[in-house]
């Protein structure tokens, strides 16, 4: 086993600062940052302060990332594979756009717009080279919830200016485009404000539970197409329950042709997808089974005239070309702002997560803020051309199918089969329960809330539960008492190891989290559990001194007395013990005269390990100082070790130190403090081999 040996002085923080000069760093204020990047010209126009060629070049590369990778594009090596990948990915976007339009409660051909316009914009602005932008089932379902709320299947639409003279489908397209436009504005604004970090608050566990719930919603929403039933679209809390109720009430009206077609397609697509997954290393391009089955179903439907003979709903003829662009409806903005924000967050979170996976795999960097700008612009421009919310589609690996009359049951079956990955995430629950139960609670609560309350409210509930688990983890962390691993300068939890050494009268308490207003009382309570209640001991000692003084005045110190229960003037009892008018100093651990009893304190030194403490707020600072004073006043020496330089600086700036709490209690490492204690109390450790500690 390799060994190392270091010879150095024993350092407290003060001693280390005296020997090693520290570099003074000037920390810039917000004003300095603003002044560095922007300045006002004489004409009052805001321009870059270093407006030279290099900065302009960097700005262009940042805003238009495609310029950077186009410069390094290897034409001969990459072009052919990119063409194959682009054709296969782009063509399946057409099919998925048609299918996911059903989730958005829109005519299917509007999915074609979502498969086209956002991709073009993202090409110029996005930083990921591998994600495929287009319709995403979760977002499509969220759009559909808004659409059916404002333009329900049954009953009149919400009274909105601009709906006059429009058909129901045209009203729904206006709602979907407007909410997508608003979603894009929110994403673009967050990108410009550099708040891409907001996605970090959506953990993988939360996203997994949320998307699983979304898959359940999608599955239920497609049952009406698979069964050939007429079920109005519903939204809001418990909408999934009401939808299932309406389906089962008319289950006997199921169109057998729709059902058989759907089951047949789902079985075939599922089997071929499993083959694609198993033999993906050997297949040059995965078998485009969704497109193949759609083409076959299209031909069979046309040949046997399913619409007339079997009453099967079909998409029918798809209009040629694109529709004229339109602006968003401002009144719809006010009606949909609450739904648009979670859509913006979910769309970006999913896209960024997928992009991050590919960037790590292929060794390039993605910019979260630029991704927000890219998706914001994609959704704004796409919405102007009547597309609905776009994000990253997770399964773009098929071949094109762009024309023909496809049956609704075929598109529903395609959607359901593609839910397998999201539905199978439920297998994570047993693993999370065994490994991390708070995370498991987040998954289950997010999933159930999203299923029962709807995706928007479910996401809010999941985020709230997730933040609560973070607070609880920080508020009630696992504190530990450490001991020395014999023959080393290493200290570990004394419950975990056998070969340990604990010096008599020394306790080492490790605090494994930040200390703030919510957990300072918890830590003070844990300190009491480690040894004793210092405030109680201090009050007992001061009460004992009162009685001793009274007995001395009366000359009755040798006789037994009863302890007074007078609790008046408690502030005096909390002050340091004062021996100034006594002929001798009291040894509190020895037997006291006159049957005076004071709790014995067997700890003379307490070490607080601050190596995992990242910050203290003002409330914690006050509570910590009070706790330290209580310990010091009962003659317990306190040492704080491995304290972060930022925290130490804050303690100085907040006037933390005084005549009782001194900066000399801070030591560089735990072992430095232990050696200091052993040298200061040699009488306790006459039989200790100090060479063990001077490793």
From TrEMBL:
<keyword id="KW-1133">Transmembrane helix</keyword>
<dbReference type="InterPro" id="IPR002645">
    <property type="entry name" value="STAS_dom"/>
</dbReference>
<dbReference type="InterPro" id="IPR001902">
    <property type="entry name" value="SLC26A/SulP_fam"/>
</dbReference>
<feature type="transmembrane region" description="Helical">
    <location>
        <begin position="133"/>
        <end position="152"/>
    </location>
</feature>
<keyword id="KW-0812">Transmembrane</keyword>
<feature type="transmembrane region" description="Helical">
    <location>
        <begin position="256"/>
        <end position="273"/>
    </location>
</feature>
<dbReference type="Pfam" id="PF01740">
    <property type="entry name" value="STAS"/>
</dbReference>
<feature type="transmembrane region" description="Helical">
    <location>
        <begin position="285"/>
        <end position="304"/>
    </location>
</feature>
<feature type="transmembrane region" description="Helical">
    <location>
        <begin position="225"/>
        <end position="244"/>
    </location>
</feature>
<dbReference type="Pfam" id="PF00916">
    <property type="entry name" value="Sulfate_transp"/>
</dbReference>
<feature type="transmembrane region" description="Helical">
    <location>
        <begin position="109"/>
        <end position="126"/>
    </location>
</feature>
<protein>
    <recommendedName>
        <fullName>STAS domain-containing protein</fullName>
    </recommendedName>
</protein>
<dbReference type="GO" id="GO:0055085">
    <property type="term" value="P:transmembrane transport"/>
</dbReference>
<dbReference type="InterPro" id="IPR011547">
    <property type="entry name" value="SLC26A/SulP_dom"/>
</dbReference>
<feature type="transmembrane region" description="Helical">
    <location>
        <begin position="440"/>
        <end position="465"/>
    </location>
</feature>
<feature type="transmembrane region" description="Helical">
    <location>
        <begin position="200"/>
        <end position="219"/>
    </location>
</feature>
<keyword id="KW-0472">Membrane</keyword>
<feature type="transmembrane region" description="Helical">
    <location>
        <begin position="79"/>
        <end position="103"/>
    </location>
</feature>
<feature type="domain" description="STAS">
    <location>
        <begin position="496"/>
        <end position="677"/>
    </location>
</feature>
<dbReference type="GO" id="GO:0016020">
    <property type="term" value="C:membrane"/>
</dbReference>
<dbReference type="InterPro" id="IPR036513">
    <property type="entry name" value="STAS_dom_sf"/>
</dbReference>
